[in-house]
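Here comes just one.
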Amino acid sequence: DNSHLLDWYGIRPAPPPLSFVVSQHWLTQAGDRLYFDTQFVSMTDGLLIGAVPAGDEILVATTAWLLLLTSDGNVAERLGATAGVPPDLTHIGIAADQSIIVRAPNERYVFDPLIAQLRVDSAQQPVRWRYAAAAPQGLLRTINRRYRGAGLSLERIIVDLHTGRLFGTAGVVLINLASIALVVLIFSGIVLWWRRARGDGANGTNR
């Protein structure tokens, strides 16, 4: 368990996660990361508002954009303003005719899976909106471990160990002093060797 090392680096646990169930899977936002079950999907600068099946794919909605995932959680396409996605989305759901509806503050839109774009919803049918649900605790614990671990690489630990940053300011000072001492030791060794070699040369000449 590397939780103590993560604490030392100040890498805090994920904020309270937001989860939605879709097609027997869980979509979870932890901080600025999205997860499909426990698999990392994408970074996000918006708030997760839901996910629905879209044919063989899954349509994920955040307040900033839409994301099409394959059935195994890989990103197929990210949809933004060029696909007609308005800012500040609030809800996603399924209408009575099984069409996918996305709501913004002042309008409702239908998602067209054939061209992966939104158009204004003129039918205004009743919609079953998707709402967050409580994900299994085991899944959330795994996501939290991966969320924290993503902020700390082995390379960073090794570099910090060599530079002393792993031990704070005192460690950096100690490593710097040790480096200076090593340079002085090497230089003094070279000087002693040079003097000894010079002395041996002079003695040989005197003979």
Notes: Confidence is low (pLDDT under 50) at residues 153-157. Helices lie at 3-8, 137-149, 154-163, 168-206.
